[in-house]
Amino acid sequence: MEPLVVIYGSTGTGKSDLAVELATRFNGEIINADAMQMYEGLPIITNKLTSSEKRGIPHHLLGNIPLEDEPWSVTHFKREANRIVAEIRDRGKLPIVVGGTSYYLDGLLFDERLVEEHKDAAAGILPTRDELEAQYPILSGPAEAMLAKLREVDPAMANRWHPNDIRKIRNSLEIYFSTGRRASDIYAEQRVRKGAAQARSGSKRSNSWKTLLIWLYAKPEVLNERLETRVDKMVDKGLLDETAEVYTKLQSRLAAGEDVDRTKGIWQSIGLKQFEPYLRALEETPDDHSKLDALKQAGIEDTKTANRRYAKSQVRWITMKTLTSLQEEKVLDRLFLLDSSNIQLWKEEVLEKGVELTRQLLADEQLPQAVDLSETAREVLSSKVERSNRQEVACNQTCDLCKKTFLTEDLWQTHLKSKKHRKAVEWVKRTSLMVIDQAPGKEAAQEEPRVSQGEAQAAQGEQPQGIQEAESKPKPNEPL
Ligand SMILES: [Zn+2]
């Protein structure tokens, strides 16, 4: 197996800089995986490194497509990136893939993954809950209306949920609105994919997979401030000139009667939409300086907001999609979160740790536990990592109340938290038929399993993995 380093992270975390640092130390070449940076020109809008910042390191797929082009599909990206990875290896060098379009990175890493080709995914953007609610007011309306809508668009999911389970009904609807696809179809595909992944070598993959995944992360408060400052700097460097350039191009194409999809490619770059009222006023009322100033200020504020929202959606993608895929493929232990919240600690927290991880990867040394790298890593990753470890731990636990046996620690823990089990516990408590423990004892483990693992899983089956935001936590006051 040949080594590969992949750097994930939202805008403003320093990914490109880290990639250059690693490339200079380990004889690397860089492949860009940021859909916007693939467009030629527009260095400020797309946040490209300057040539001095590149420090002579070859960068691929950077500024390689004309502004008019649609962004590459994930299939196209995967094909080209794989080809370049092979070429870099032929030169005896280390390929380092870096970018904010996690959609591309996921596509590159996960063979079996069915990556949805919907419009937002092309830019790696998942709408936030607030955005969805603004666009689809039904999501903040009464449960009956949501259920009626779900019956219309995805009857299979509607039948699955109890009419009072607003959380699940809304979740299914959100999936439909944000992806344009039925949750039931997505889950069906995930089941097929999961089956295929398990049929392959499974946990062995982690040992033979010489890939290091770095997630460069900054705490939201810090990152938001950093992004605001960056927009001000971009304006100083000439953001408005670049925006005007794209705007003029757009206008001339529209004037020529061309059909431009403004939700795709460079036309949806951050800044264009936000400065459009200003750019239009500049043409229409060039002498109204107070109006122009006001519109420009509004454009700056809106650009800051859009940047923050973009960063948030990027992190959401990683936590909801990438981590889940890594977990499914049993390679979550290859992901290391480096904390770039404090720029003063960049050297200790990001550079030195990133260099050490890469050295260990190349030397075939044992990699550390991701949660041990920093307090932030522990906070952000621990629930996912613990769950993943539990999945590996075999056990044989029988729940006497529910008459079910579970063969992995994860299934067992999930059962203990399940509504069904908690209801059973409550019922027994109330009727006082017998004295029971919240977690039935180990002695049950000696009994013959009464159901196979498959059946146990089927009993848990209403928990499709991969797209649900979080598992439902036991709520003490929930009505029975
Ligand atoms: Zn039970």
UniProtKB/TrEMBL annotation:
Residues 399-421 form the C2H2-type domain. GO terms for biological process: tRNA modification. Residues 470-480 have a biased composition (Basic and acidic residues). The keyword Zinc-finger applies. It is an enzyme of class 2 (transferase). Its EC number is 2.5.1.75. GO terms for molecular function: ATP binding; tRNA dimethylallyltransferase activity; zinc ion binding. Pfam families: IPPT, zf-C2H2_jaz. Residues 453-469 have a biased composition (Low complexity). Belongs to the IPP transferase family. This is tRNA dimethylallyltransferase. It comes from Bombardia bombarda. The lineage of its organism: Eukaryota, Fungi, Dikarya, Ascomycota, Pezizomycotina.
